[in-house]
Amino acid sequence: MKIKHYTPSTSNLAYSVGVTLDRFIKMKQDDFPYASGELSQLLRDIALASKIVNRETNRAGLSNIGGAFGNTNVQGEEQQKLDVIANIRFTRAMTKGGEVCAVVSEEDDEVIDLQNKSGKYVVAIDPLDGSSNIDVNISIGTIFSIYRRVTPIGSPIQAEDIMQPGNQQVAAGYVLYGSSTMMVYTTGNGVNGFTYEPSLGEFFLSHPDMCAPKDGKIYSINEGAFNFFEPGLKNYLEVCKNRTYSARYIGSLVADFHRNLLKGGIYIYPSTSKAPHGKLRLLYEANALAFIAEQAGGKATDGTQRIMDILPQSLHQRTPLYIGSMKMVDEVEGILKVHRTLV
Ligand code: AHG
Ligand code: MN
Ligand code: MN
To answer: Of the bound ligands, which one is closest to the alpha carbon of residue 254?
Structure first.
């Protein structure tokens, strides 16, 4: 019998489809010889749930899952049906996987104990971000942070397992349901982006080793609240206008963040005289994106302090957020500081 060694075909007739998310996760796991594979499995569980949410998001205009659910969440915000559906999908996927012991979700007032005795991870999640955009067919997202529990595996969940600062994240990511669906994540060793191929039902590596431009010309902020901004921020916005920067604001944090990550820019959701802590939530919005921003060479602060060093005091705590290209965040921080010391 003759045996021939396989050599990859270079034929144009069958181009390579690339690296799937599953294979990429496996390759990365192999870099850590003592890794037990649970984090990898958890990332795959999240990816699977995101495919289901993607399917349901795509059908939202056709089926009866658009619009309000008729309930308000702990933030006092009206829940959309897809908020509820996405929360169930992600929580169920994590329950079945068995790697997660507890979940903090925007849509649940309390910590959910998944009753997984061997679960060593805690997940904070915004199952559907930008949900007011669902009914108008505009990009939405999912944001997640993964922590290792600090108390012994199998014992009752404690506050210290949940209230960890962002600098303790072992992984974080987001899914963007946009003109295409993407998953972007980090495990603290750079940032990689994957684009969903619906006909194959797989995410493929499309944006390896993502880097945030050091500077940019896009600013993203809801300027409707301008009258309630502090003087330093008003001043910074004048600077942006004098330089004819582009104002871009989708109103879905994931989508605004993603664009600025690729193109260079800053996203700001500030404190205002009406909302001194801003709007966005530390545990399941700001921390994950801060981890990704830093891993891509960008920066994330609350105007003075690094987001990932804030010690959470409550589950649904809010924080102002300045995030994006390093130079832009540095500049606005400098201007805020000057104005704050004048007061
Ligand atoms: P969510 O849909 O999870 O409640 O988040 C909405 C957030 C965020 O995605 C977006 O950037 C911001 O709210 C928009 O708020 P404004 O309408 O106040 O600008
Ligand atoms: Mn959100
Ligand atoms: Mn949400």
So the answer is: 1
Do 302 and 237 share a structural domain? yes
* Residue 44: inside a domain: yes
Q: Is the CB of 107 under 6 A from ligand 1?
A: no
Q: Relative to the CA of 129, which ligand 1 atom is closest?
A: 3
Q: Is residue 31 predicted with pLDDT exceeding 80?
A: no
Nearest residue to 95 via CA among 116, 110, 111? 116
* Residue 34 pLDDT class (50, 70, 90 cuts): low
Ranking 11-25, 110-124, 265-279 by mean pLDDT, the lowest is 11-25
Average pLDDT over residues 158-186: 97
Burial class (CB in 10 A: 0-12, 13-18, 19+), 223: middle
H or E segment and range at residue 313: none
Do 164 and 224 share a structural domain? Answer: no
Question: Are residues 179 and 245 both part of a single domain?
Answer: no
- Is this prediction's pTM over 0.85? yes
DSSP state of 20: B
Ligand whose nearest atom lies closest to the CA of 131: 1
Q: What is the CATH number of the domain that holds 229?
A: 3.40.190.80
Q: Strand pairing partners for 145?
A: 124, 172
Residue whose Cα lies nearest atom 19 of ligand 1: it is 222
Domain count, the chain: 2
What residue numbers bound the domain in which 60 lies? 21-207
Shared-domain flag, residues 184 and 113: yes
Least confident of 18-32, 86-100, 201-215, 286-300: 18-32
Average pLDDT of span 273-294:
98
| pLDDT tens-digit readout, 242-256 | 999 999 999 999 999
CA–centroid distance, 18 to ligand 1, in Å, is 34
* CA-nearest residue, atom 6 of ligand 1: 130
- Report the 10 Å Cβ neighbour count for 3: 4
| Closest listed residue to residue 184, CA positions, set 164, 156, 218, 207 | 207
* Pocket flag, ligand 1, residue 222 (CB < 6 Å): yes
Which atom of ligand 1 lies nearest, measured to the CA of 126?
3
